[in-house]
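User: I'm new to structure prediction. If I give you an amino acid sequence, what do you actually give back? Let's try with this one:
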Amino acid sequence: MNTAPCDIRGFYLFVCIEPASQAEGFVVVSALALVDGNALNEDFELYLNVTGERTKKIELGTYSDGIDRARPMLIFGNPLGIPELDHTATLIHADDTLAEQSDDLKKVFILKRSTSEDEVRKFCCYRYAQNAQSGPIRVLEDPFLTPVRDTRTRPRGRFTLPFEL
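Assistant: Good question. You get back a string of structure tokens that encode the predicted 3D arrangement of the chain. For your 165 residues, that looks like this:
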């Protein structure tokens, strides 16, 4: 039996769910994007460093039964924040020939992302052909929203009460 690791290219599925307007307790998927992982981040070494084996802190707390699992969290842009991808289903893929291979797909956008090394990566946005708008293929240049961030984390487990004790 071969126990060597095998790296498999990944895709991420983003969905936006909203309450169904007429059926209480039900939701509808109002937007969906199946996204080539490289459109979010192609730094595989970063991924391996974050998901690899880490040392956790054990025997913490008053009774020495606590642990800190040291679980990292990465946050990247959400493609559903791009207005052109809202309220529809889209496949974002690096292959620019998928529509030529399937009559069911139509290329609707070229998505370009600028890297920190001033290079440009290109991805294609596809839709189910029957739902795709007609017209020329538009280019979306760096459309991901980038929130203002700082390096500090936020305190947790503290609350401000609306009265004095």
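You can read the tokens as a compact description of the fold. Here is one thing that stands out. Residues 10 and 25 are 32 Å apart (CA to CA).
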